[in-house]
Amino acid sequence: MTSLATIIFALTYIGMALGRVPGLKIDRSGIALIAAVILVATDEVPVEQIAKAIHFPTLLLMSGLMILSARVRAAGFYEVAASWIARQARQPLRLLALTIALGGTLSAMLVNDIVVFAMTPLLCTGLAARRLDPRPFLFALAAASNVGSAATLIGNPQNILIGQVGRLSFWSYFAIAFVPAVVGLGLVFAFVAMAWQSSLTREASDAPMSTPAVDRRQVRVCAVALAVLLVLFTTSIPREISALLIAACLVISRTVPSRQLLDEIDLPLLILFAALFVVNDAFARTGLAQEVLDVLRSHGLLPDRLLLLTPLSLLLSNTIGNVPAVVMILQVWHGIPEGTLIGLAILSTLSGNLLLVGSLANLIVAERAALAGVHLSFFDHAKAGVPITLVSLVFAALWLWAVGLMRP
After folding, report:
1. CA distances (Å), 326 to each of 207, 323, 380, in order?
2. Helix 28-41 and helix 267-285, axial crossing angle in degrees, nearest 10
3. What is the mean pLDDT of residues 167-196?
4. Residue 343 to residues 7, 55, 274, 304, 305, Cα–Cα distance (Å)
5. Does the pLDDT value for residue 181 go beyond 90?
6. Burial 262-282 (b: 16+ CB within 10 A, else e)
């Protein structure tokens, strides 16, 4: 049955690269789920081994962070933030800078996919009212959310997984990743401003805008909850338990129904992770992954050096996606050095800006914008995404080498 596990593994990651099954409305989560079910049904992964294959601490941490973000959204914070940004429309470059700063900062503290899901339609509405081309700002939001999320181990799904599996220190990682993230946000501003110069010089309309309601008390509650969570990350309490403790406290509310918060947990994303854990576990059982790693190790080709890890991250993130790529790498390659794990988190995240399909955040922005009547094309993304990614990767690689984390 080894051949079956290998075939299913290969087909799954071909599906990850395509993003869906041609002719059918099955996305990445559906593909991974079907593959996992087949592997369990054919006993490639015994039923009693499913729980061991899935890394539940990662899923629990993600769920807790999703509830925190849902509470922030319920307080009206995203609406007010997007409205405030849109009011700066008479100065488009300032509007661009604020979009990047806010998107990057929020994505570092909350899962970036959730941030762009909430803010994209709000930005579309606000910019439409001012008769501005929303595309440069939406692209800037997506790019900034990717770059900003690289700064922490809770900024995006792949970093959450790397931090949990590698048991990386939250604040030690932040101290290293902060500089590449800040430089990356500056690069986002510079290259978007150059690529979309004509759109950013248009005259904005003075159309009046309504001020959305915000529950200031609930915003303060969320701010305190986030501060407490960051403090808990300095203790010996597992990060997933810390996140769940905060989430449990936030579920207690007189104004926000618990069902509303729980409904905002991104179940398809959690299914994608769980199913890929099973698929990769089945492939690891064949022994082929270990044989490949042994050959690479014997020839000095393991991606534990920057000249190998950087192009590998760029290739995998823009074919199968950075989340599936990281799940695969962590399950087939054991004993990864800490410096390589940190490099993988930073480089795989920054690589997601190259193409529209490079990260979930990019796709979420494009899909949410389409619902608001704004079309973001592959070229729209690439004309600024390519230079942003290449320059930010070069800087990040030089930084990782300069601080002594990885060999060139």
Report:
1. 46, 5, 27
2. 40
3. 95
4. 30, 21, 24, 9, 9
5. yes
6. eebbbeebbbbbbbbbbbbbb
From residue 327, give the alpha-carbon distance in Å to each of 178, 346, 378: 24, 15, 26
Estimate the crossing angle of helix 135-149 against helix 170-195, to 10 degrees.
160
Tokens of 363: 């796709």
127 contacts: CB under 8 Å, gap ≥ 6:
86, 89, 133, 134, 137
In 252-377, which residue ranges form alpha helices assigned H by DSSP?
Answer: 258-263, 267-285, 288-298, 306-316, 322-332, 338-351, 360-371
State the Cα–Cα distance between residues 335 and 117, nearest whole angstrom: 35
For 22-44, the pLDDT digits (tens) are 888 888 889 999 999 999 999 99
pLDDT at 207: 55
Q: Tell me the C-alpha to C-alpha distance, in Å, between residue 10 and each of 4, 14, 19, 318, 339.
A: 10, 6, 14, 17, 29
Q: Is 273 helix (H, G, I), strand (E, B) or coil?
A: helix
Question: pLDDT-derived band of residue 283, with 50, 70 and 90 as boundaries?
Answer: confident
DSSP label at residue 210: P
* Total H helices, total E strands in the chain: 20, 0
| Cβ–Cβ < 8 Å for 177, 348 | no
pLDDT (0 to 100) of residue 107 = 93
**Contact at 8 Å (CB) between 79 and 214?**
yes
HEC string of 69-120 equals HHHHHHCCHHHHHHHHHHCCCCCHHHHHHHHHHHHHHHHHHCCHHHHHHHHH
Rounded to whole angstroms, the Cα distance separating 173 from 58 reads 17
* Beta-bridge partners for 143: none
Tokens of 194: 């150059």
Whether residue 264 contacts residue 224, with contact meaning beta carbons closer than 8 Å, is answered with no
The H or E element that residue 24 is part of is none
Residue 3 neighbours by CB distance under 10 Å: 8
Q: Report the alpha-carbon distance of residue 107 to residue 254 in Å, rounded.
A: 28
